[in-house]
Structures are given as structure tokens and as C-alpha cells.
């Protein structure tokens, strides 16, 4: 069943979110601080049973210089390829070295980034939420931008960002913070249009925020969240973007995705999967992104 507005209403919906006056300066100073640290990228070859791909265990400095890990997968012996940087869903991890092989098999350098601290955990939505400077996602978004810096340091000039759910929300944030990306794929992006999400969604992880508000009745999360809302980042993003959403998604309300989609400053398309839930079309949607990226990222 539908979990949110009908499709006609979704096309009409516009988010009530408004960016803080110092949104840009906050993020400009945050990234300047992160980039003042030396970008020391290490890529160690990993022995796998794969015959057609090379895999590297990559580390690079994220927020505060903390070492962030990622897998880099490339066609065997190739270098200087256009790169696809992928961020994973809430509570997930980068998986094993020999899985998630689609993008490298399609001829791209594929950097799969591990979100800090999230190997099966929860509670990240409220971690450090009392202040924008201490909020958990400030660290995550900086890590994600530094991942783009890292893959460029490894030889990829053209870079796209992708993700599902939390990963899609992170990809949108990076699109708003890195102006020269080539493409974006945000599949059922989480972390968008927070006020709307908290009003209509009764499932985790958004309920971490509603539970916090219920238990701290004199507190408000919205002053902090206003600096981390995907709608705000979308308004700064100019790379061609492909969004997707399932109308039966009860984890990421479709209206919140449309809120970000309608605010997106660059060329954009959205694929609506009428009978999909949070998978937002799954592999069929991935096929659309693969075709789109082949036309956008210059292959050697």
C-alpha cells in the first residue's frame, strides 16, 4: 500500500525546509579545516579469488584526521579510470573484498566507503545532536567528501557518487559540497526533509529522533538538523542526478525524496517504482544508473 502521498500530490509537494543563513559558511569552514590536513592515501592490494578485478584496501584521513576505510575495485591492471564512490545504508558496512562487483565489472574504479562506527550499530541519528559542530553526520559528510579527494589522488579525474538510503543521503550531501562531480545516483535517499519525515514516518531510523524528542520535551533537534538536511545540499548541487523512490517505502517517505528532488539545482531525473518499497527498484534501478553513468563518465 502507499505509505505517503499519492503520485500526483508528490509531484506538487515542496518542502518547507529553509537553509540557515550561515549554511554555506559552516560547510566551507568545515571542509577547509578537514583539507588543511595532509591527504595521505594508502591502497594495499588484497588477495582475492577474483580473476578479472583488482581489489585494494584503502585508508584515508576523514574528519579530524581519523582513518577511514574503503575497498577500491578496478578492472585488472587498469588505472586512471573514472570512479564511482559508493556509500552504504544505515548500520551497514563495506562488506567483504569480493562482493558488490557490479561497478568495477562495468569498467569503473569503484570505491566503496565504510561509514565510521556503523557496523550493525544504531543510535547515530542523535549522537552529538545538541550542537551542529558535534553532530555525528558532520563527521560522516566530511569523511564522504574526503573519499572523493582520495579516489582522485589515486588517479581518477571524473568521479560520480552513489548510494541507497543513508548512502543516498550521503551522496546528496557530497553533491552539494563538491561542485565538480560528474553524476549522482540517490536511491531512496535518507536524511532529507527531516520535519516532514518525523511527521509521517513511524519506522527506524527516523524514530530515533522522535523518541529523543519525546524523552527530551524541552529540546529541539531541528536547529542542528537544518545544517544536515538533504534538501539544503540539493539546492547547492549541480551534477546531473538520478533519483529513485518506491511508493511503498515505509522507511524513507517518498515525499521527503521529492522534497530533495524538487530543490535540486542541477539536471535531474527521478524514477518512481510504484510497487517497490525501500529497495526503490533494486537491480532494475541500478541498470538505469549504469546506462546513465556510461554516457556521463568518459571511459578510456
Automatic annotation (TrEMBL):
**Domain Acetyl xylan esterase: where?**
2-283
Q: Which residues form the active site?
A: 165 (nucleophile), 249 (charge relay system), 278 (charge relay system)
Give one GO molecular function term.
Answer: carboxylic ester hydrolase activity
Q: Which SUPFAM superfamilies match?
A: alpha/beta-Hydrolases
Binding-site residues for substrate, renumbered to this chain: 90
Extract the Gene3D superfamilies matched here.
alpha/beta hydrolase (3.40.50.1820)
Q: Which GO terms describe its biological process?
A: polysaccharide metabolic process
Q: Where is the signal peptide?
A: none
Instruction: Kindly name one Pfam family recorded for this protein.
Output: AXE1
**Lineage: superkingdom:** Bacteria
Query: Mind telling me which PANTHER family this protein's record contains?
Result: CEPHALOSPORIN-C DEACETYLASE
Q: What is this protein called?
A: Cephalosporin-C deacetylase
Its source organism is: Lentzea atacamensis
